[in-house]
Amino acid sequence: MTEVEKEIRTKKDLLFKESQQLFKLREQQANLIGDISGTLSASRNLEANITKLKNEKQRQQELLYGQNFQIQQMERRVDRLKGVRSQDEQQKLTNDINELTKNLEDHKRDYTLLSNSNKTLKDECRNIDRVIVKVKDRKETLTNVIEELKLENEMARGDLEKVIKDKEKTLVQHDVMKLEIKELREKVHTKADEVFGLENRKR
Predict the structure, then answer these.
(1) Rounded to whole angstroms, how far apart are CA atoms 192 and 188?
(2) pTM for the predicted model, two decimal places
(3) What is the CATH topology of the domain spanning 2-164?
C-alpha cells in the first residue's frame, strides 16, 4: 500500500506538472493567435491602402496622359502657326502663340507637379510592398510556430491521456488491494476470534 500510495503521489505530481505545461502552452497559443489576428488586420489595412494608392496612381497617370496629349496638340498648333502671315494675322498669331505658350508653361508646371506626385506614390507603393513582404514573412513564421505548438499540444494531450489511464489503472489496483486487505483483515479477525475461543476453552 505504501508503494502504491507513493506511486499515486508521483502520478499526481506528474499530472499536475503536465497540466501546468498544458496551461502555459494554451496561453502561448492564445497569444500567438492574438498576434496573428493583429498581423492579419494590419495586412488587410495595408492591402486597402495599396488599392487606394493604385487607384490614385492610375488617376494621376490618366491626368498625365491628358496633359501630354494637350501639350502635343499645342505644340502642333504652334508649329502650324509659324508660317508667313499678314500683319493682322501675324499679330493675332503672336497673341495666340503667347497665350498658348502661357498655357503650355502652365501645363508643363502641372505635368511637373503630377510627375513628382506620381514618383512619391511609387515610392510609397514600394515601401508598402516591403512592409507587406515583412508581414507575410511574420505571418509565415507565426503559422509555423502555431503548427509546432499544435503538435506539442497533441503530444502533451496524448501524454496526459496516458497519465490519466495509468492513474485510473492504479486507482483500480489500489481498490483491488484495499478489498484484498479488507478480506485479509476479516480473516485475521476470524482467526483471532477462533484463537480467543480456543484459549477460553483451554482455560
Answers:
(1) 6
(2) 0.33
(3) Helix Hairpins (1.10.287)
